[in-house]
Amino acid sequence: MPTATALPTAATASDWRGWLPPRDVLRIYALAWAPVLLIYLIAVETDGVWSRGFNLLSALHGTVRNMGPQFLLLLLLWPATGWMEARRLTAVKQVAAHAVLSVGFVLVWYGLLWVWIALENGIASAERARANWFIWQLEFGMLAYAAAAGGFSAYRAVQRARSEAAAAAQAQMLLARSELAALRNKLNPHFLFNTLHSILALVRKDARRAEDALFTFSEMLRYLLDTERSGDDQVLLRDELTFTEQYLALEAIRLGERLQVDWQVDEALLGRSVPALSLQPLVENSIKHAFNPRSEPGRLRICIDLAGEQLRMAVSDDGPGAQLPADGALPPGTGLGLRTVARRLALRWGDAARFDVRSQPGQGFTVEMRMPT
User: Fold this and answer.
1) HEC assignment per residue over 202-225
2) Torsion of the alpha carbons at 142, 144, 148 and 153, rounded to the nearest 10
3) Which structural domain range is residue 290 located in?
4) Which of 158, 256, 295, 355 is the most buried (most CB within 10 A)?
5) Treating both helix axes as pointing N-terminal to C-terminal, what angle do 123-203 and 23-43 enclose, rounded to 10 degrees?
6) Within this chain, do residues 160 and 218 fall inside the same structural domain, yes or no?
7) Model pLDDT, residue 132
8) At which of 168, 187, 215 does a domain end?
9) Shared domain check, 215 and 359
10) How would you write 32-60 as a 3-class SS string?
11) Would residue 177 count as lying in a domain?
């Protein structure tokens, strides 16, 4: 029985409460600012480069004064973008919120710059700086805000997409395991009853054959337990074939000469991985619908080969067949086995796998599945 596992989740309402971005985001943020600060470091002293030489200390002072508050203030966009994401704001509301925040950011940033210059050089100097710088600083601040907001939002979107993809993948894995567990649970009581009944009848006629049948049955149960303990629904093709052969050997005790089996297996594929309990349900379907209802002999064909780049497993019989629905769905009365195998293939490989059923009244029944190797 698969156990519940905590699934990774996308961003939640608690994410935005962290004031600072994660370390990897801080590194990217600092690296993005590095060329901007370097250019500003040179530009702030450009007027005096040729007349008095480049003054590194003066350039550093001007860069820290003019850009330092902006660098720190823009980090507040991290919790702001998280808050918007947690509230699931529409695109229009996000644009409106960013428009308001960008104006507020520019005014606060330039206000801090004005105060700094006023404290250092007086109000008159701060006013002259405002008159000379305000328009282009306003534009630069808006661009810096847009870049930071876009970068933080993009990072959050990528992380959310990764988390949702991981959650979906894990949910599919758990669902596939649940489907396999359901198939095991269906097989055990049904097959247990029929097999024990057949062996009990055999004990009275041929004790040696009954002993061999019990050994075969124990090996089948071991296979089921091993696949359950491993927690992996993939097994080697040779093991799945051995399990199916054992199943047919036990069914032959009951069916006798009515069951004739043709095997067409490419032995080069025996080391390939296939879903556990994928072939046996197809065989069981034919036993149930093609052999159980009639008394005359029937033929079961099992073919395993390559179809292009895909592994093909096909089971067909010469039983009464059935009229398939027009939409290509499985016919009414089809048991859990076929539906579960088809669903497991879709969960694991999606459109890369195929599960086809072909049948007509009086023309037997064929189930073919293909999967990546």
Assistant:
1) HHCCCHHHHHHHHHHHHHHHHHHH
2) 40
3) 206-372
4) 355
5) 150
6) no
7) 66
8) 168
9) yes
10) HHHHHHHHHHHHCCHHHHHHHCCCHHHHH
11) no
For residue 247 the two structure tokens come to 């199943």
Note whether residue 10 is domain-resident: no
> Does residue 233 sit in helix, strand or coil?
coil
Quote the number of domains for the chain.
2
Indicate whether 210 and 120 sit together in one domain. no
pLDDT tens profile 40-50? 777 666 654 44
Structure confidence by residue, pLDDT tens digits, 222-276: 887 787 777 677 899 999 999 999 989 988 888 888 999 999 999 999 999 998 8
Residue among 309, 313, 298 at smallest CA distance from 367: 313
Sheet bearing 259-265, strands edge to edge: 259-265, 298-307, 310-317, 365-372, 354-359
Say whether both 239 and 154 belong to one domain: no
Position 97 scores a pLDDT of: 86
Q: SS in 3 state form for 87-116? A: CCCCHHHHHHHHHHHHHHHHHHHHHHHHHH
**Cβ 288 vs Cβ 335: under 8 Å:** yes
> Do 126 and 227 lie in a common domain?
no
Global pTM reads 0.53
Highest mean pLDDT among 126-140, 204-218, 272-286, 314-328: 272-286
Residue 311: pLDDT band by 50, 70, 90 thresholds?
A: very high
Bridge partners, 314 (sequence order): 303, 368
- Residue type at position 55: N
Q: With 50 as the cut, is the pLDDT of residue 51 above it?
A: no
Residue 180, domain member (yes or no): no
Residues 55 and 39: their CA atoms lie apart, in Å, by 15
Residues 286 and 146 in one domain: no
- Distance of alpha carbon 139 from alpha carbon 340, whole angstroms: 61
Q: What is the DSSP letter of 11?
A: -
